[in-house]
Amino acid sequence: MFAALYAPSVPLAALLDVARAFTPRFEPCGSLVLLDASGLSRLFGSAQDLGEHIHAEMRDGRVAIASTQTSAALLALGRPGLTVVAPGNDAAVLATLSVSVLDTFERLNEARSPQPPQPEARSPKSEGGWSHPRHTHQASRSGKPKGLPPQQGPQQGPQQGPRLLEILAKWGIRTLGALAALPGPEVHERLGQRGVDRQRRARGEDRRPLVPWVDDVPFEAVLELEWPIEGLEPLSFVLARLLEPLSLRLEQADRGAAVICTSLRLTNKSVQTRTLQLPAPMRDPKTLRTLMLLDLESHPPEAAIDTVRVHIEPTPGRVLQWTLLDRAQPAPEQVSTLVARLTALMGQGRVGAPVLVDTWRPGAFTMSDFRCEMADRSTKQQEIRSPEDESSPDLRVSCGAALRRYRLPIPTRVQVHEGRPVRLVIDRHGFTSGAITQAAGPWRTSGEWWTTGSVPSASSAAWDRDEWEIAMNDGTVYRLFVEREVGQWFVEGVID
User: Fold this and answer.
1) Nearest Cα to 201, choosing from 219, 187, 173, 180?
2) pLDDT one-digit tens code per residue, 86-103
3) Where are the alpha helices (DSSP H) in 82-181?
């Protein structure tokens, strides 16, 4: 469902303000504004109620609501007041309009400016938008089909529109219904591709999807302080004053903050800049302020602050649909705030999610940003089994041994006889020491020696070690390894 607003006597900036009050998905077309009204029924009720709300906001102009944007635009150009067409009745209502509305609609498309005027409240430097170049193609003409007057080719240039109207008038075509009823191939042979395009518009067909207009106004706020401030507590009040209008603009534009850049001009004439990457689009001002303050707590300014500047890089809003079968995950705002507090407490690079690296080095991993994402439902599908299947022995799964690896290997002393460990001594409480009853190994592994020089060392990224699995008298099974270059033994973990 689409809505069209047309008011030649009203400035375009005023029409854009009316469109923004209802939906962020609108596109200006000359003095005509098209709206995507697909999701507005929950807010304003039926299409008739929505049309009455829009028409009341305009006060002077035309409003049309139809199934396609072309139908809504033609009805707004051809009929005064408010026009609401039920789904499926577009063709019947368009059939009564004059073909001259096609020429008006064509002029509006050709006069579309790539930089429509911005509202007065916006920054005067704002500009930009989406321009849609249109290309006309001269179609080949041959033959003389039946049912149409003799061939009259279209002209190139600005006189093509009036020329088409004259041709249609000579043929006796005065309404959109009569033009839509003509056979398409014969229209192409007589009038070319432009005639076919006008016939499709007369039928209410859209040539392209609606491209929402995006204001090229940066999400940025600057505040020059009368007196310098020191500390995070007074800075929090300044950030709240800057973030509240920015969050409101993000909500109106259906956007979220992806990156926040904070620039602080200090009294010593230096500028401190901090860039905060957000794990998910956010626009809650309290959450954004908390994240910025926690980041500045880890990197405090060197002097008092004179000017505060906040720049936000927007991204489309995050929309999630949870299911009734899965447990709801925490909100990204809560997770981001918790991670930021832990980072300020533990230090940069010490909080996140572990990620395996492409190496055979034992225990190698790296830290990445922790993100709370929806799990793939395809991996959570469970088979529904009958009671007979549950009791079937072939469906039972046996669990093998598991290695509980210690984060930091435990140094130990090992007695070796004929190259095999025979006795283990561990000084830490809770570990078993004594004779080794069984030993399997060694398994030799090495790597990364090519990145640190010809001779690897214990402190370098290279490793060269032998691994053993041993069993003690009480049944405990350990995994040991020895650094071959230094001869030091370690307990890597226990096997359950």
Assistant:
1) 180
2) 888 888 888 889 888 888
3) 90-94, 100-110, 160-171, 176-180
